[in-house]
From TrEMBL:
EC class (word): transferase
Name of this chain's protein: Aspartokinase
Enzyme nomenclature, EC number: 2.7.2.4
GO MF terms held by the record: aspartate kinase activity
Signal peptide range: none
Residue ranges occupied by any ACT domain in the UniProt entry: 278-353, 359-424
Metabolic or biological pathway: Amino-acid biosynthesis; L-threonine biosynthesis; L-threonine from L-aspartate: step 1/5; Amino-acid biosynthesis; L-lysine biosynthesis via DAP pathway; (S)-tetrahydrodipicolinate from L-aspartate: step 1/4; Amino-acid biosynthesis; L-methionine biosynthesis via de novo pathway; L-homoserine from L-aspartate: step 1/3
Organism: Pelomonas cellulosilytica
Coiled coil regions in record: none
Family affiliation: Belongs to the aspartokinase family.
InterPro entries the record matches: AceGlu_kinase-like_sf, ACT-like_dom_sf, ACT_Aspartokinase, ACT_dom, AKii-LysC-BS, Asp/Glu/Uridylate_kinase, Asp_kin_monofn, Asp_kinase
Gene3D superfamilies hit by this protein: Acetylglutamate kinase-like (3.40.1160.10), VC0802-like (3.30.2130.10)
Presence of keyword Nucleotide-binding: yes
Keywords: Amino-acid biosynthesis, ATP-binding, Kinase, Lysine biosynthesis, Nucleotide-binding, Transferase
């Protein structure tokens, strides 16, 4: 008998028929002798609908008072789905009980709409499991020290599931979703993209932070911190497929470098169009200049990603960085009105139509020439690289948005990602 956490996303919970299917699948696991905690998301579209209602009443307000109410509202999506799933399980003859985040409780800090889980009291859940029940816990939500309802950020049910699995030392956390695993890249862009049987936790973390939307990044951080065995798999297989087959399907996130693991140098290609580039031209190249530019940006709470400073000519240099596209207008305004004049910049320029394409792989640690292979593949397609950033296990380039798909396809091919990796 194992203790297993299942997480079902919004699409899997999208209608009463689908919820019935989830219940049948969970029932199969229970009948195979396992203890189950199930963490569903709100029915698909529901969180958007709820937040949309709030927006009708208060389009732009972000006061703490409004943020508190947003969480009050958004959390009801999951409250409905846990109740429905518990009823569906009971209809299958499986004893079950549902809880909201505050009933568990899942304790969080007070950062409304992006709260962090601080601790989980699992006593109540354990008692129910011991009494033979399936426990259905609302994803995406918790409660702060003052008993205010909080939510964990969009996509936060993944984090709820992994955190519960960590707190309860579950044997495995299965994330059932509308894709059947983690792919070398998005199959909508590269039809030859291949599902990975395993991916290392570090690669998954990079992929999530670089724009792959499969798992909320915090859930991956949690899995890494507490070594939660995590698997991403499809909720669209027939519910009655063989349980052993199901248990091995999808993509397993691994922690140890295992000899039998796929050993591709590059495991995947991530991309996103979420960033915009800004440049200060002709700023004096002197100590403190980067701080003079980026300090005010950080003070305005704007996240900076890729940064590049050119070699100076006649004591002047150009300085570029990227920000989230939502922050583009604000950043440009700040540079034009404040930072530009303060640093004596000759000109401020901006380009919101860029994208970032990244190759990710732990094999990059031990192989040379990976970045140059990337640059060659891009140059063969005539794609100009505007910025480059690297870490131990990834290389990212910023390019013109219109070449994104071409770049992803070229890189997928250059690194043979359409072929099953062989042991290195
Ligand atoms: N329902 C929430 C959202 O749409 C949380 C989740 O689905 O994980 O973001
Ligand atoms: Mg999700």
């Amino acid at each position: 008998m194992a203790l297993i956490v299942h997480k079902y996303g919004g699409t899997s919970m999208g209608s009463t028929d689908r919820i019935r299917n989830v219940a049948k699948r969970v029932a199969k696991w229970v009948r195979a002798g396992h203890q189950l905690v199930v963490v569903p998301s709100a029915m698909s579209g529901e969180t958007n609908r709820l937040l949309g209602l709030a927006k009708e009443l208060s389009p732009a307000s972000t006061t703490p008072e409004v943020m508190r109410e947003l969480d009050m509202i958004a959390s009801t999506g999951e409250q409905v789905s846990v109740g429905l799933l518990a009823i569906a399980l009971q209809a299958e003859g499986i004893p079950s009980v549902s809880y909201t985040g505050w009933q568990v409780p899942v304790a969080t800090d007070s950062s409304y709409t992006k709260a962090r889980i601080e601790s989980i009291d699992d006593q109540r859940v354990r008692a129910d499991l011991a009494a033979g029940k399936v426990v259905v816990v609302a994803g995406f939500q918790g409660v702060d020290a003052q008993n205010n309802i909080t939510t964990l950020g969009r996509g936060g049910s993944d984090t709820s599931a992994v955190a519960i699995a960590a707190a309860m030392k579950a044997d495995e956390c299965l994330i059932y979703t509308d894709v059947d695993g983690v792919y070398t890249t998005d199959p909508r862009i590269v039809p030859e993209a291949r599902r990975l049987h395993t991916i290392s936790f570090e690669e998954m973390l990079e992929m999530a932070s670089l724009g792959s939307k499969i798992l909320q990044i915090r859930s991956v951080e949690f899995a890494g911190k507490y070594k939660v065995p995590l698997r991403v798999l499809s909720s669209f297989t027939p519910w009655d497929i063989d349980i052993n087959e199901e248990a091995k399907s999808g993509t397993l996130i691994t922690f140890e470098e295992d000899e039998n693991m796929e050993q591709a140098v590059v495991s995947g290609i991530a991309f996103n169009r979420d960033e915009a580039k800004v440049t200060l031209l002709g700023v004096p190249d002197k100590p403190g200049i980067a701080f003079q530019i980026l300090g005010p940006v950080a003070d305005a709470n704007i996240d900076i990603d890729v940064i590049i400073q050119n070699v100076s000519h006649d004591g002047k240099t150009d300085f570029s960085f990227t920000v989230h596209r939502n922050d583009y207008a604000r950043t440009m305004e700040l540079l034009q009105n404040t930072v530009g004049p303060a640093t004596n910049a000759a000109k401020v320029a901006g380009d919101p139509k860029i994208c970032k394409v990244s190759i990710v792989g732990i094999g990059m640690r031990s192989h040379v020439g990976v970045a140059s292979k990337m640059f060659r593949a891009l140059s063969e397609e005539g794609i100009n690289i505007q910025m480059i950033s690297t870490s131990e296990i990834k290389t990212s380039v910023v390019i013109d948005e219109k070449y994104m798909e071409l770049a992803v396809r070229a890189l997928h091919k250059a690194f043979d990602l359409d072929q099953e990796a062989t042991a290195a």
